[in-house]
Amino acid sequence: MAESRLRHLLTAGAEAWLGVAAGLLAWYLTLPPILLRTPLPSLVLAAVGAALAWHSRRRGGGTVAIGALASAVVGAAGAIASSAAPVHQLETVVVWSALLAASLRFATPVLFAALGGILSERSGVIALGLEGMILVGSFFGIFGTDLTGSWVAGLGIAVLAGIALASIHAVWAIALRGDQVISGIAINLLALGVTGYLFIQRYGGHGTPTDLPGIPALHLSFLEGAGFLGEALGHSNLMTWVVAALAIVLSFFLFRTPQGVHLRAVGDHPDAAASAGLRVRATRYLAVLGSGALAALGGAYLSIGFVHSFSPNMTAGRGYIALAAVIFGGWRSGGAATAALLFGFGSAVAQRLPIFSPTVAVLLQAIPYVLTLIAVAGMVRSARPPAALGKAYTGT
Amino acid sequence: MGAAVTGATSFLAGRSRLLSQLLSVFAALAVTAMIIAVTGHDPLSTFQAIFEGSGLNWLLPWTSGAGRETAALNLQQTLLIATPLILLGLTVALPFRAGLFNVGGEGQYLFGTFAAVWIGSSFGGLPGWIHVVVVIVAAAVAGGALAGFAGLLKVLVGANEVITTIMLDYIAVWIGVFLFGVGGPLQDPAHISEPLSRPVVESVHLPVFWGNPLLQGAHIGIFIAIAILVVTGIVLARASIGFEIRAVGANPEAARYGGINVGSTLVKVMVVSGLFAGIAGSVASDIPASEVGFLGIAVALLARNRIGWILVSSILFAALLSGTSERNLDPSVFPPGLAGYLAVIFQAIIILAIAANLLRLRPPRWLRNRLPATLFSRGVARPAPEAGQ
Question: Residues of B numbered 262-321 whose beta carbons fall under 8 angstroms of chain A's beta carbons: which are they?
Fold first, then answer.
């Protein structure tokens, strides 16, 4: 029985991931450096991917199988589009090392906020206030740098502002036992108002100064000659490396230290945690304040490490994207990092595509949001949220 | 559901809900006054300028002469802004009653404006009133479709509606930039280098009942909005679908057990809620679209999701918006560029104050024992907090 042998070789999940890969490979064939000028092999490959998706779905492949189907459709469409596009344009847009470097730039603030979101949600408090925390980090990062003349001090002031805003969310969620979704939305609105007000009051029509010191990029000389890796990673911003390290630290903290276990216990079973002697409210306060600090670091990177200016509402939904990354990543930093990179890649592609058609390209600016929508819609049931997420602790 | 649940509570507890709303407004006034003072302006004269900018002083009998004419113009602006706000408040309040949080008023409103501008700027041959009806219906359908999509995602795959509606907002924004932007399909061909929409045919403008049509007098849109408000209130209170919505909001499990199709009720609620936002987009005035979703939340929460109170609360926020607008606020008292953000802060504080349910703050035990217990009965701001996302 070939069927049962296949079953042993390939689990339904592995088969679905193979389908995802087939879809992506189908598109890759028509892009530099391979640059096939006919979509035929890609279409065959996409059809294989779709078949794998269908078969995996029948064996209970779950949501990844749907992802494989989506990947096959996107791969086929992409292959048809790019095999019809002029070669010189493809070669300007698709420079893999530059795309990866840009993806990392876009992913960094989202991942900072997502790590904060994991911390907060693992303790049981919904992290809908990330958007506002990033925004105050952005403003106070550049404002603090302007006041003190040092980006290090700017980072510190941004973190304090993030913690201050998070403390409102914490008091509302933990002490007042209010609705955490509403208080999250409210602090986002508060951040929008306060940063916009202070921005106009201080900088008026001129915008933020352009001669401020920024967070430096890390030039890794040992990567200089390393070709692709050197071009993609050799000049990344300091904060990109910091957030990568923080992702590992957070994962270690949550799953390998007693304090991390306590934090997850508080988020899953607060009553049991309390009867075991853990301080539920204190733990949640610390987690939410920590989320404010992390998200504000991401915001400060955005203003003084990436675009080197501030404009009202410049976060443009990154906090909500970060929350989607938390959910998509199953409340783990590795998963959230994958999701953040995916959205970063979407933004990077959207930034480079206008070369084909400036009018239609505005539509492509919506790519990161569409990706987020697909992520929360398609993958939402792959992991369980912390059991007590969003529920106020009423014990004494 | 409030009446059923708190039926046994006293007169005092019923009044305390109104009291906490008033407290929220005072809290917002106090915080904004502090911000105004700290940043070197005078709170009292600023509030007075905003009040006069809103035109509410028209209602005061001692306003006369030229001041009265200005006040009338400003009050017409306030009514114009109140029109979409009523509908946007409903957009949030109705799903709230079913336990859903529709944060995507902005996207649904934008979809409404896309449909309205498209239909309104073409089909010039249609008779005026039919054209108006077609425009409003198209806008409603566009908004309803977008919200219904989020509702479907919620019911079919369990995607959190807060995130999906916000993502749809940003997608709608970029679609708008494409449609009305330079070279876009709905851009005005007469101003080829500017991102302006095509002009809407003259006969589709709603009739003005107060003031000069050339100076943006108040049009009859507000009566349409109030009519929709009344119908929604009656349906929610009296019709069986209204009961289903309230039952699903109160306890989805019990509702399912009682034979209600919870999923289809949730999708219907989202569609209807999007219809309201779409209509709001078709009767829109000069409010910045980026604030539309949040404004709806503020209106609905200040009204505690009560249909009747939405009228009061939307006039309050409309007064705030027109009072702080560049057009109406006296720039020698307070810079209008700042005032817009002041209005945003004001909304945020109101939402925070209502979410805190200030009266829920429990006084220390020694005081609690000396006061009647019913003072502390809870008003419910949001019917069914959901587990997880």
Answer: 290, 294, 297, 301
A381: which chain B residues are within 8 Å (Cβ-Cβ)?
157-158
The verdict on a CB contact (< 8 Å) between B352 and A183 is yes
Output the 3-class SS for A38-54: CCHHHHHHHHHHHHHHH
Q: What share of chain A is helix, strand, coil (3-state, %, to 5)?
A: 75, 0, 25
Calpha distance B273→B143 (Å, rounded): 8
Q: Using one digit for the tens of pLDDT, what is the confidence trace for A313-326? A: 888 889 999 998 99
What is the average pLDDT value for chain A, to the nearest integer?
86
Cα distance between residue A371 and residue A393, in whole Å: 34
Contact B91, B71 (CB under 8 A): no
Instruction: Number of A to B CB contacts under 8 A, please give it.
Output: 165
Residues from chain B that touch A389, judged by Cβ atoms under 8 A, are 387-389
Q: Which of B162, B171, B386 sits opposite A128 (nearest CB)?
A: B162
Over residues A100-115, the mean pLDDT reads 93
> Taking every pair of C-alpha atoms in chain A, what is the biggest distance, in angstroms?
76
CB contact under 8 A, A189 and B357: no
pLDDT digits (tens, 9 = 90+) for A286-302: 999 999 999 999 999 99
ipTM: 0.84
Q: How many Cα atoms sit within 13 Å of B135 on the Cβ side? A: 30
Check CB contact under 8 Å for B361 and A377.
no
